[in-house]
Structures are given as C-alpha cells and as structure tokens.
Design a protein that fits this description.
The complex is a heterodimer. By secondary structure, chain A is mainly β. Chain A has no helices and eleven strands. In chain A, strand 4 and strand 5 form a beta hairpin. Chain B is mostly beta strands. In chain B, the strands form two sheets. In chain B, strands 2, 4, 5, 9, 10 and 11 form a six-stranded mixed β-sheet that branches. The chains are: A mainly beta, B mainly beta. At the A-B interface, strand 5, strand 9 and strand 10 of A face strand 5 and strand 9 of B.
C-alpha cells in the first residue's frame, strides 16, 4: 500500500547465513507487523511492534528477531537462515492494530 | 485463539456474474478486515468493517458481529477481480489479526 515499502524485494541466500529484511513506512503509524505467507498456511504473524522498541511475538516467531529503533523502520532478522524459512514475507502497518495496510512483500529463498 | 473459516475455498465465475464470499469466526469480533491478493501477490485492503454494511463500487461487505460472520459481495465480476480474498479478525482483545485461508476467485472472460 502507499506509504510502506520493503527491501529487498527478492533475495536468495544460503542455509546458515544471516538475513535482514527491512520495512519502511512514511505514515507515522504506531503499529507494524511481519507476516510470512506459505501455501496451505495463509498469512501467519511472526512479530509485531506497538511502538519504538516495543515488540512482541506472533505465532511463528522461532528463528526470527525484530528491531524497531525508529517509528518508520521495522527490521526482521533471520539469525541463521534455514530452508524452512523460504517464504514470502509481508510487512504491514496500522494507526491502530485493527486496520492494517500491507507492503509489497519480499520473496526469500534459502538454498 | 480465534478461528477464522472462509468459504468457498475456490470459486470460478464467468465475467459479469455475481458472487458472495463468507467468513465465519469462532468467537465474536468487533473488528474485521477484507483483503484482496491480486495475481501479482499484492495485498490490498478492501474493507475495514466491524459491523454493518459498507460499499465501494461493485464490492460491498456486511458484518453481523453477534452471529460471528461477514460476507463479501462482488457484483458484475471482472477478470481483474481474480485473486485470493482474505478476511481477518483480531485475536482476543489484542492488536494481532488472525487470517482465514482465503477464497481463490477466478473470473473467466
């Protein structure tokens, strides 16, 4: 959606390497989220943030960490990527947590 | 936590036909969103509809929170309506959304 971007849009990496995905918003929204989307599982929440330096886990947080040092940026880190983390990753933002707007997605392949 | 079920899982229409997509929740919801994921993967926010009915062009949505369901109506469907439609509701009183598995809509010319 307008006002939210993700980088990179595509990435191929090897098993065991660290990976950081960036989400950037220009709407000054309080809430930001990271989801992964996999066939047969729909969208699942990894982590979310309800303010600068305030984060919490979602349903599939194992193997992922996040940081939010500025309102506009929310980083997702895979400390040591595994093949099971091959997925499409979406970031979302919201003024409240109840109405969310999504970024364009990042396709990550772990070989 | 809350369970979200969408039906039908797949729907194939001819251009110009109307359709109704349904979203059922295991618990009462006070907030609900409908999204469209187009064939290029982009997720577009269609409606934020905690209750009542909203309309936007050929699309409209109705949520009956007390009966734990929401409906998305698509009238005079077009090929550009193809994609997957998701509904999502909040988990408990949190700011986290739980998504259904989606309805895959194919509109043929």
């Amino acid at each position: 959606d307008a006002g939210i971007t993700q980088s990179p849009r595509h990435k191929v990496t090897e098993t065991g390497t660290p990976v950081t995905l960036r989400c950037h918003q220009t709407e000054n929204h309080r809430y930001m989220y990271w989801y992964r989307q996999d066939p047969g599982h729909g969208l699942r929440l990894i982590h979310y943030s309800y303010g600068v330096k305030d984060t919490d886990k979602g349903e599939v947080s194992d193997g992922y960490s996040v940081s939010r040092s500025k309102t506009e940026d929310f980083l997702l880190t895979l400390e040591s990527a595994t093949s099971s983390q091959t997925s499409v990753y979406f970031c979302a933002m919201g003024r409240t947590g109840y109405e969310q707007y999504f970024g364009p997605g990042t396709r990550l392949t772990v070989t | 936590g809350i369970q979200v079920e969408q039906s039908p899982p797949d729907l194939i229409l001819q251009e110009g036909a109307n359709s109704t997509l349904r979203c059922n929740f295991s618990d009462s919801v006070n907030n609900l969103q409908w999204f469209h994921q187009n064939p290029w993967g982009q997720l577009i926010n269609l409606f934020y509809i905690p209750s009542g009915t909203k309309q936007n062009g050929r699309l409209s949505a109705t949520t009956v929170a007390t009966e734990r369901y929401s409906l998305l109506y698509i009238s005079s469907s077009q090929t550009t309506d193809s994609g997957v439609y998701f509904c999502a509701g909040p988990q408990g009183g949190s700011e986290k959304l739980v998504f259904g598995k989606g309805t895959k809509l194919t509109v043929n010319p």
